[in-house]
Amino acid sequence: MEGMETAENIQREQLERMRSFMGPQVTSEGHSTRSTSKIESPITFANPRAKEFFVDGTSIPDVNFDAGPSWSGLMPISGHPNETRKLFFWFWPTNNISNVRDLLFWTNGGPGCSSLEGFLQENGPISWSWGQAEPTPNPFSWTNLSNVLWVEQPVGTGFSQGTPSISNDDELAAQVAGFLEQFLEVFGELKGSNFWVSGESYAGFYVPYIANYLYEHPNRDLHLKGIWIADPSLTWGLVQQEIPALRFAQANKNVFPFNSSFWAQLQNISDSCGYTNYLDEVTYPPKGLLPLPVGATFNETTRAVGVKPECRIHSPIQRAVGIINPVFDVYRVTDTFPNLWSVLGFPRSTQEFVYFNRRVQDAIHAPHITWEACGGPVYINPATGGPGNDQSVASTLSVLPNVIEKSERVAIVHGLADFILVAEGTRIAIQNMTWNGKQGFHSPIEPESFLVDNMGVFGNMHTERGLTFVEFYYSGHMTPQFVPWAAFQTIAYVLGKRDSPSA
């Protein structure tokens, strides 16, 4: 059949383009098709202690190519001689000497999720993503743009050591600042670097609070320039989950194929709880602060916003779709059967092994413990000292405006296939935030305004008053993993390597 033959030929052409697109390949003998000369670091460290953290890129277990030199291990959060709280880091120098004065900090979210997930499956020089048989070089590594420091924080995350002692993100930021001071004492050649803070998910709390702390308590050895956050927790779950949930499912009916009676049930919840009409209140420019819908609850003591039990709509949608799609992934709703394995055991445990529980622990100077991609608890209850929750106010309602005003560039990006935090909820959060003297964006977010080099239209984008917002096609929650080419352009913009995030 001619049509099928044509389609099959196009598919073969696409596979060849993908091989070229993904850069140097690793042969069956374990050699990369890129240069065979040993990779050298454009920066060296005089402090003898730095040698204790050195990692030889030719001997990282299961990595069958020279990944280049790096440094990793545990670093205390203070200079106190009896300090027991230590954060695990993995520092990689840039592969471009012109970027040697730039330092980018990365943290995953959770709370309690490891930044080694970001390193290995999102934006590091080694890529071992879902379904990959073995690691490969990452052509979209952020080390192409800057020195990068992946840090497992706060205490209680990943390989990091000590007893959690924080109850809010001001305290978290103070511990990160203490860690950075200790880090720079060992790696002194990085002093004076331009500095950026980046992360995803619950890092919508972490990153703005860390940046705000550094702006208010400046580190004379780092020059903070801005932040980048992906699919971030920015406000109440009511806003980023419940209010936009139904419209998201309706816009993606091909992967939410519910029957008519269940759709009617969901519509009734949305209408009666004030979600349906609420979305019409989001205007450019805003008419004023957005009110809470009738489905909201408000605690007069803690001033926390919640959801009435009968107005929960996000969870019923997720539970229902999980019945008809057994491998439904709230992090990327387009995933279908069969399930791809992950060498990190997250977000699903179908793997044969977890990479960071193997020989690699010795190679990267990690403690011999059972590593988990997401763990915790990482916060304490300040009244009891036992496990607790983050007491911080969401960043759009607290510190993020100050960070935008003090930064050169700030970017918030969001995948349009993410359901754990919905992009439309992020739009609402931005429109309810005031920075640089005005509330929200005053001009609409332009459709089809974000383009990727050599691809074309890849999403929507808008910039106003120091804040850039970008929505990505094809991406779920972990944007540097799902659309690394798009995420790369936006971080390059924040780092000042591009005049615009868009092509």
Your description of this structure?
The longest helix has 20 residues, at 2-21. The protein has helices spanning 2-21, 115-123, 169-186, 203-216, 237-251, 260-272, 275-278, 314-324, 360-363, 400-406, 423-431, 479-482, 484-494; strands spanning 54-55, 70-76, 86-92, 102-107, 126-127, 136-137, 147-152, 193-200, 222-230, 296-298, 305-307, 409-415, 434-435, 438-439, 446-452, 456-464, 467-472. It has an eleven-stranded mixed beta sheet, sandwiched between helices. Strands 5-6 form a two-stranded antiparallel sheet. α3 (169-186) packs across α4 (203-216), α4 crosses α10 and α5 (237-251) packs across α11 (423-431). Helix content is 28%, strand content 17%.
List keywords for this structure.
single chain, 503 residues, 13 helices
Q: What is the fold's blueprint, element by element?
A:
Elements: H1 2-21, E1 54-55, E2 70-76, E3 86-92, E4 102-107, H2 115-123, E5 126-127, E6 136-137, E7 147-152, H3 169-186, E8 193-200, H4 203-216, E9 222-230, H5 237-251, H6 260-272, H7 275-278, E10 296-298, E11 305-307, H8 314-324, H9 360-363, H10 400-406, E12 409-415, H11 423-431, E13 434-435, E14 438-439, E15 446-452, E16 456-464, E17 467-472, H12 479-482, H13 484-494
Parallel strand pairs: 4-7, 4-8, 8-9, 9-12, 12-17
Antiparallel strand pairs: 1-2, 2-3, 3-7, 5-6, 10-11, 13-14, 15-16, 16-17
